[in-house]
Amino acid sequence: MIEDVSGWVQFKQSTWNYIVDPANWTTWLTIFLKVAIIYIVGRIINAVTRRAVAHMVQEREKSPLKFDQRRTKTIGKLIGSLISSTVNFFVIILVLSQFGFNLAPILAGAGVLGLAIGFGAQSLVKDVITGFFIIFEDQFAVGDVIQTGNFKGTVEEIGMRVTRIRNWTGEVHIIPNGLITQVTNFSSHNSLAVVDVTVAYEADLEKALQATKETVRRVYEGSDLIVKEPSVLGVQTVTNTDVTLRISAECRPNAQAEVMRVLNVELMRALDQLGFKKIS
């Protein structure tokens, strides 16, 4: 009984000595000051990154290219959450280190686990990362006509792992995003229709040019696919038997084929009425 009382007295005395020791107060004050600084810096980093992501999303929404605003906001939230989680993780690690926790085994185990997962799912990770950047950079959108490798068609779906493209004959190509290394987008900018009109060498060139200009002007006024009046560039080639005239027209994205067909038909009719034969 006396030993218990003596032990209790020693414990109280050692506790009191620890509490009143200025060195211990200095140590704990330093620790709490470091923790506060780490916490404040983490909050500042989170606030700055959230503003940067919000500004980036606003710029994307103002882009003249087609881009789904809901997709933009989703990507913005995803990036914000990823950055916030990363910053919070490092804040917790730094705070625990201030209290003397040995974090080396935990970090080493997490590193080994991440490495094993990375080696086991390299293609999946590559597909997801590529899909993320396709969406984030607005390389193409649903409804765009694109070509990647040997596949050309209309984009039906952009997923985080695969992209679906339907070609003009109806086949649907499902392409892993990791295999999309180069893309040609036919729907992001206006296209150019180029039509060559060939008339006989003996034909009246001035009348042929005048008829061509009147025809393309009429087609332009009646079509919403042509964004500005087509230009009759003049004589493109001359041979012993014929003369080729060239016309160019700026069209809406991916509309050049339809505009070329319309121009060909109207030019053929106009030249036939004047007695000129359109060879090509």
TrEMBL record:
Family the entry assigns: Belongs to the MscS (TC 1.A.23) family.
Role: May play a role in resistance to osmotic downshock.
GO cellular component: plasma membrane
Transmembrane segments annotated in the record for this chain: 25-42, 78-97, 103-125
Every Mechanosensitive ion channel MscS C-terminal domain range: 194-273
Source species: Paenibacillus hemerocallicola
UniProt protein name: Mechanosensitive ion channel family protein
Domain Mechanosensitive ion channel MscS: 124-187
Cell compartments where the protein resides: Cell membrane
Single annotated GO MF: mechanosensitive monoatomic ion channel activity
This protein's UniProt keywords: Cell membrane, Membrane, Transmembrane, Transmembrane helix
Topology relative to the membrane: Multi-pass membrane protein
Domain named Mechanosensitive ion channel transmembrane helices 2/3: residues: 89-122
Pfam families found in the cross-reference section: MS_channel_1st (PF21088), MS_channel_2nd (PF00924), MS_channel_3rd (PF21082)
Top-level taxon: Bacteria
